[in-house]
Amino acid sequence: MSRVFSGIQPTGEPHIGNYFGAMRNYVALGEQYGKGSIYCVVDLHALTNPAAFDPRLLAKRTFEMALANFAVGLDPSRVVFFAQSHVPEHQELSWIFTNLTPVGELERMTQYKDKAGALESVPAGLLMYPVLMAADILLYKADTVPVGEDQTQHIELTREIARRFNHTFGETFPEPKAVYNKDALRIPGVDGHGKMSKSKGENSTLGLLESLDSIWQKLRAAPTDPARVRRTDPGNPDVCLIFDYHKLFSDLPTIEMVDVECRRAGIGCVDCKKKLMEGVTATLSPIQQRAAELAQHPDDIRDALAQGAKEARAIAAPVIAEVREKVGFLKL
Ligand code: AQP
């Protein structure tokens, strides 16, 4: 039977890229696979990027990331949900994998090059990020990994590490596959500069739990088709970020109407954004309401994380025992 694993970094507020790209799939797969679906707030990963890591905020962000996942519909009593640092086996397996992974392969990772390029001094942890990610997934022998498209290269490396381990120590791990939400492969940032990303800061993101007023202010200022200068100019939805968002938030008749009317200058950008805001409100209001309710009972969130860590360790224990034996550690 398939086993599902995915992780999300507590590097800031979860945004609609995380939601449509990954979190919504967590819920769908959670309903299908129950306790065979394992989700993790990857707080160890959050340490790897000094631009996004703040020790004063890490615990709060980890808690809030768990809360946000429960607010979108993940039920911790029906899936396994925990914080990565509560399951030390991730680090043990990661160290073993580190010794099966050439540095050159890690240096070729696009996400590493992007993030390292912006830093004066690059921590070794940033380079090792995909090795830890491979350990996260393979510790549970997961074969299905719901992620956004930006993680494709890391999943390919995970498969390579699994193959290498199996070749060196005997058949142990499956070669996991990424599962994408094909309608939300790579959601653009609201500032119009590349992928929506937590670590790029608030100008890039529309937060899942951000106030609707603040979201509207950002949408109002968001760039549209740059060739459409006047209201009477026809626009091209194919190059408009607002149209990308319509495809996520609006119903089909609205998407079709906006597509047609924009091309013949029948709708202006402000009205188009107002129409989008209706869909945003309908999608995010119930999530935000549920989050407010959950926030009234913080101990329940902590208890759920403690229980999740216990369940995760129980699944990981036989895998790490098998790995130790195959690698040849002294057994006492
Ligand atoms: N813009 C996006 N479009 C589609 N999917 C996305 N994901 C992230 N951004 C988008 C997916 O969300 C999951 C969790 O991401 P993450 O928190 O582990 O790290 P990330 O991919 O690097 O996300 P951020 O927001 O860009 O975080 P920072 O800035 O801290 O690195 C992943 O499955 C990801 O693919």
TrEMBL record:
Pfam family name, one: tRNA-synt_1b
Record localization: Cytoplasm
Keyword NAD appears in the UniProt entry: no
EC numbers: 6.1.1.2
Catalytic activity entry: tRNA(Trp) + L-tryptophan + ATP = L-tryptophyl-tRNA(Trp) + AMP + diphosphate + H(+)
Residue window of motif 'KMSKS' region: 195-199
Residues reported in the UniProt entry to bind ATP: 9-11, 17-18, 148-150, 187, 195-199
Key word Cytoplasm present: yes
Any GO molecular function: ligase activity
Motif residue range(s): 'HIGH' region: 10-18
Keywords: Aminoacyl-tRNA synthetase, ATP-binding, Cytoplasm, Ligase, Nucleotide-binding, Protein biosynthesis
Gene3D superfamilies in the cross-refs: HUPs, Tyrosyl-Transfer RNA Synthetase
Domain of life per record: Bacteria
Residues the entry annotates as binding L-tryptophan: 136
Protein role: Catalyzes the attachment of tryptophan to tRNA(Trp).
Subunit structure: Homodimer.
Family: Belongs to the class-I aminoacyl-tRNA synthetase family.
Name of this chain's protein: Tryptophan--tRNA ligase
Upper classification of the organism: Bacteria, Thermotogati, Deinococcota, Deinococci, Deinococcales
